[in-house]
Amino acid sequence: MTAPRAYVVGYLRNVDVGPEIAEYIERIEATMAPYGGRFLVHGGRLVEHEGTWNGDVVILEFPDTARAQEWYESPDYQAILPLRTEHATSMVALVEGVPDGYRASDKISQLFPLMNAPAKLAS
Fold first, then answer.
1. Which of 17, 40, 53, 77 could share a disulfide with 31, CB 3.0–4.6 Å?
2. CA–CA separation, 122 vs 15, rounded Å?
3. How confident is the model at residue 49 (pLDDT cuts 50, 70, 90)?
4. Are 109 and 116 in contact (CB under 8 A)?
């Protein structure tokens, strides 16, 4: 079985749209390419259903967690990172996806491992 894909999720607010952000946008894809990264969401239209969302969402996809982490720590990405962090308030996280064929009920065995264990015999 192959490793689940990984996602870098960013939530950006208070973006100071100017030359630095433009440069960041121009350069980011070249930093992702060697690690198999691609954009899934890049500040698209957001429809609020719960809570207040006053920023933009960015979601990047990578083949696996290791490659996503390697990209984030790479010298090429670290070189452009201040272009964003100094011109926007942002939160960024790397999250592992689920394997192909995953079903929501698969989570039950992780949350409640004893539900799947045989009942202990009374001593």
1. 77
2. 62
3. very high
4. yes
Is the entire prediction scored with pTM above 0.90?
A: no
Q: What is the 3-state secondary structure (H, E, C) of the chain?
A: CCCCCEEEEEEEECCCCCHHHHHHHHHHHHHHHHHCCEEEEECCCCCCCCCCCCCEEEEEEECCHHHHHHHHHCHHHHHHHHHHHCCCEEEEEEEECCCCCCCCCHHHHHHCHHHHCCCCCCC
- Asked whether residue 79 carries a pLDDT value surpassing 90, the answer given is yes
Name the CATH architecture for the domain at 6-116: 2-Layer Sandwich (3.30)
Query: What angle, 0 to 180 degrees and rounded to 10, lies between the N-to-C axes of helices 75-85 and 65-73?
Result: 70
Phi, psi of 53, rounded to the nearest 5 degrees: -115, 110
pLDDT over 70 (residue 119) = no
State the Cα–Cα distance between residues 60 and 68, nearest whole angstrom: 9
User: Residue 13 has what pLDDT?
Assistant: 95
